[in-house]
Design brief:
Length: about 150
């Protein structure tokens, strides 16, 4: 198992993971048109903009690419594992790797309806800070931070 920094040479791999995983995680509460618009090409432009703003993206490999994560300062974002690789510990490995890259207390934001993410982060010592961002249709983003 290894981690690789995303560069122009491998950004297409990260974008494909992001697109596939994002579509799968959002299909139950977003319109089909909105979900389908999140193509690999669109997510590649998204990752490029995120990298230009100072975020570092990493790909997790275990014989082949399994997931991605981004880090900027103490903020962990874009943790996505391919649907076919979920429930195999890759999310935990990506989270631990990202935590080690944070210079201070790791923080992250999750969608209020993402129970799988909540369970993962709580299992790894994260608690809710009380900070909330309201989105559409009563959906919220909730901030969590590592507390152990």
């Amino acid at each position: 198992m290894s981690f690789e920094l995303v560069t122009k040479q491998n950004i297409a791999i990260a974008a494909e993971i992001h697109a596939i995983s994002w579509r799968e995680s959002h299909k139950s509460f977003c319109s089909k048109e909105f979900v389908d618009a999140h193509t690999t090409e669109r997510q590649m432009r998204f990752i490029e903009r995120e990298m230009e703003s100072g975020k570092e993206f990493y790909i997790l490999y275990d014989t082949e690419a399994k997931g991605i994560v981004s880090i900027k300062d103490n903020l962990i974002e874009n943790l996505y594992v391919l649907p076919s690789a979920q429930q195999k510990g890759y999310g935990s490995k990506l989270l631990k790797y990202a935590e080690e890259k944070c210079p201070g207390v790791p923080k992250l934001w999750i969608l209020s309806n993402n129970n799988a993410a909540k369970n993962l982060y709580i299992k790894h010592g994260y608690t809710f800070t009380g900070n909330v961002k309201s989105l559409k249709n009563e959906l919220q983003e909730l901030e969590m931070q590592l507390t152990r």
